[in-house]
Amino acid sequence: MKEEEKKKTLTTNQGSPVDNDQASITTQNPTMTLLSDTHMIEKLAHFDRERIPERVVHAKGSGAFGYFEVTNDVTKYTCADFLSQVGKKTEMLARFSTVGGEKGSADTARDPRGFALKFYTEQGNYDMVGNNTPVFFIRDGIKFPDFIHTQKRNPISNLPDPDAFWDFLSLTPESIHQVTILFSDRGTPDGFRHMHGFSSHTFMWYNANGEHVWIKWHFKTAQGVKNFTNEQATELAGTDPNYATRDLYESIEKGDYPAWNAYIQIMTPKEANNYKFDPFDITKVWYQGDYPLIPVGRFVLNRNPENHFNEIEQAAFSPGNFVPGIAASPDKMLQVRLFSYPDTHRHRLGANFDQLPVNAPKCPMHNYQRDSYMNTRNDAPAPNYYPNSFEGPSPDAKFAPPALDVQGLAARHEYPLGDIDFVQTGELYGRVLSDYDKTNLINNLVGHMKNAQQRIQLRQAALFYKAHPEYGTRIAQGLGLSVDRVKQLAEMSQEDRVKATAQ
Ligand code: HEM
């Protein structure tokens, strides 16, 4: 306890001294509690309101503060102020999380891990809200609520639902790449310190001349990658469900500060028109052979929060929090996310969520937004409208990101599903994973898929077969399915495969 807080008289929230905090005011015989005990009522009423909605996804997580330091000159690509000079340091916050589980769920669950960073720059807050995987399950944000529902509890049984899980994924073949990563041991990382982070999305960087490039962020753990096997993760879920939270907190407490090295991949707009994969499709990576990692800086986490609720639970990250020099790309998932985060923050934390100290910029801010619940801003005596002739804050066109040339019809354009959507998964299985990784991947998948209906197993196994025949064959064998049938289904179009496995 802080020295200055010791030996003080207990008070109400209004600062009035309290005479007794152990006995409520009642009649004597029998004891009926009286409304006149305003201290007791205030205490209980506040307690009744302690919980706020947990995040609809990424509810379980922990975080810490630290700094980002630029190590490489990237000013020819971006005019972002916090990246403007080698050696420049910017205060930051990181929050790591699992995705599907509730706030009390186990840290070692098989799940992607959230990797959210907030940079308190001198030109406003920049958020990089990524994951520990470079790709995602879907590539159009309109599918996100359905996808998440299949990862949550069945609304009737209140239990995880393997049918829903595999039904949706097998009807959404573009998920195959992320599914393969998730069911490898990368789906159960050893805490938050031993994993990489990725923006996954493509973003625009533009320089002082208004020239832009497309980039992807990579954050490589300086602690080295470590994963748990399924057995280790399952055991820890019982014996130490807060493993990752404890590991991060304790390492910082003892001065062993975790660090990540930051890199980007860069693609020019011209290259983006001709790349073999759609560079804005989040189910695909850009090969590092084509677009090597360029070092940018590193970040170090060296300070635990003083109050988890205030600084981590109330932290509000948004992939739309940009600073000059960084902007969105035409990635359909990203575009939907730009809406969803501040929308959920207004619901979860209230309209003035950005006035909370952890979310407020550390640079001056000026605009004409006013009032609402819990407002503490006071812009008076400035005018509360724009334009005005009282020298109130005004926009500056020099901060405009480059204009994008947009053409064609506004319509519900679907991503066509093609063989190209299985190529990177086939390479991951065939060329990247070791025999040990492959065996764990197959066992982890079979262990999970065995709980789904057989027709759904067949449909999903056919997708693995399409990615790599050995992959599909081993899954089929592990589940006791006919390999011939799986091969036959793999050779069909997705539409025919769905019809053939309808019942
Ligand atoms: C959290 C929506 C895709 C990473 C959240 C939250 C929502 C959400 C509503 C809760 C935020 C809060 O309560 O503060 C969506 C939607 C998506 C999407 C609609 C697709 C259109 C993604 C992708 C990634 C990602 C592709 C990673 C590349 C995260 C992270 C958090 C989060 C890291 C936790 C942030 C924190 O620590 O507070 N998402 N998400 N999400 N999402 Fe997404």
TrEMBL record:
The keyword Oxidoreductase applies. One of its GO terms (biological process) is hydrogen peroxide catabolic process. GO terms for cellular component: cytoplasm. SUPFAM superfamilies: Heme-dependent catalase-like (SSF56634). InterPro entries: Catalase, Catalase_3, Catalase_AS, Catalase_clade1/3, Catalase_core, Catalase_haem_BS, Catalase_immune_responsive, Catalase_sf. It is an enzyme of class 1 (oxidoreductase). It holds the Pfam family Catalase. Residues 11-394 form the Catalase core domain. GO terms for molecular function: catalase activity; heme binding; metal ion binding. Heme binds at Y341. The active site is at H58, N131. Keywords: Heme, Hydrogen peroxide, Iron, Metal-binding, Oxidoreductase, Peroxidase. SMART domains: Catalase. Residues 1-28 are annotated as: Disordered. The keyword Heme applies. Residues 10-28 have a biased composition (Polar residues). Belongs to the catalase family. This is Catalase. It comes from Dysgonomonas alginatilytica.
